[in-house]
Write a structure and sequence with these properties.
Elements (H helix, E strand, L loop, with lengths): L3 E4 L3 H10 L9 E4 L20 E7 L12 E6 L22 E6 L5 E6 L5 H8 L7 E6 L5 E7 L5
Antiparallel strand pairs: 1-8, 2-3, 3-4, 5-6, 5-7, 7-8
Length: about 160
């Protein structure tokens, strides 16, 4: 059994955005088509967009606590409904080498207590080392270059 679990954005968020074409902040969505140079990932299924797939860009705040660490930033999901990521005990294979990743560490109250660039190491190794700190309750996987949110990583046994 894995020491961690990986979660995409809540399906209710993706459903709301697809149905209303508005995000939680009232912003209208940007609709685009993935190209060979700009392919994703979708924050619902956690798969890389294929060139030609429609995608929705919207603002999302992944930290449930109301303070400055609840950053609002841009994320993409498939324009058409996709199956939300369910293989929670494994880090999504398509995200391992696609782009450099950073893992940000958060305490139970949502304050950031650290972070680490994954680099060339196995992401599971970095997750394990970060969870050695008992202050760290969950992680956010983000793109290292621009900091866009990808997924939430929790210790096994915690719920989303």
């Amino acid at each position: 059994m894995s020491e961690f679990r990986v979660f995409p954005i809540p399906n209710a968020v993706a459903r709301h955005v697809r149905e209303t074409r508005l995000d939680a902040f009232g912003h209208r969505l940007s609709v685009s088509v993935a190209t060979t140079n700009d392919t994703g990932p979708c924050r619902s299924c956690l798969k890389v967009f294929l060139p030609g797939e429609g995608r929705l860009l919207f603002s999302y705040a992944p930290n449930e606590c109301d303070h400055p660490y609840n950053e609002i930033g841009p994320i993409y999901i498939h324009e058409e409904e996709c199956k939300p990521y369910k293989d929670h005990e494994f880090f999504p294979p398509e995200l391992r080498t696609r782009r450099p990743l950073v893992l940000r560490c958060y305490a139970i109250d949502g304050t950031m207590v650290g972070g680490e660039l994954v680099g060339e190491r196995a992401v599971e190794e970095v997750i394990s080392s970060l969870f050695e700190n008992s202050q760290v309750k969950y992680l956010h996987a983000r793109t290292a270059s621009v900091g866009c949110y990808i997924a939430k990583v929790e210790r096994s046994g915690m719920s989303v």
